[in-house]
Amino acid sequence: MLKYACSDTAMDTAYHEAGHVVAGMGLGCRPEEVYIREDSSGGVRWLDWAEGQSIAQVRRELVHLVAGPLAEFLHEAEESMYTRSRWADRLDPGDWEVSWRLLSARIRRGETGDEAARCDTAEAWFLAREVCRRLTLHDAGRWDERRVRADILHQHGRADFYWVTGPFVAVREGDPSADEFEMLGDEEDSEMSFRPTGPITPPEVAPAEVLAEVVRAERWAERLLRRRWAAVTAVAEALYRSKSGSLTGKRVQTLISSADRSSRSRAKRASA
Length: 272
Known about the structure:
The protein is an alpha+beta fold. The protein has 2 domains: 2-135 and 206-271, Methane Monooxygenase Hydroxylase, Chain G, domain 1 (Up-down Bundle); 144-196, no CATH class.
């Protein structure tokens, strides 16, 4: 699975992809390769990127997505010696020169991104809208988060797949309501299968709700990246200096582990 960046310079792209990698690994995924192309675009190839249907999983995907532009933002803020706590609370699209990098700022300006190319902006809108749709159902008592998270049939596929299948229900072989959509017989009950309940019309959600969900993800990603900023920097600088323009997943994991150990050592010495 590929996630593409759209940055102006190779260094911007290096931090963008490093943000994706560190956030993705922090959420339990493993990278196969991270790279920068000659046109300064880039991407990450994942070994086991997990898509899913639950609110929690879609939110995790959104955090991973916003972490790329956010890493660019934090790097630019660091370079310009400019910091502000809880910047997301007071974000104004025209406030700072670097604010255009944030996906929330792009959405505020009315940018939609290239949906066909799965650009970060378009994907952020898609994922945040899916979260809001699920929350609307939850508030109406029509969403069982615990069941969706536990059901293996809902642990795969893009978030909008849910509206095609609806919840799955268990049926026994020979039941007239059963079909052959998915047979998951096991040793305990080889006659058990599952069928989708059918398409569901997703509820309407307000654009302001979608934007608020993107900002929420950026706050979460900010906390994650600030805790591991040394790892982000290590990956970004190694990627930028790489003659091949790429790093293997093994190399990325080594860089992150080394940076994390150094950070813990510095923190231990500072507290001594």
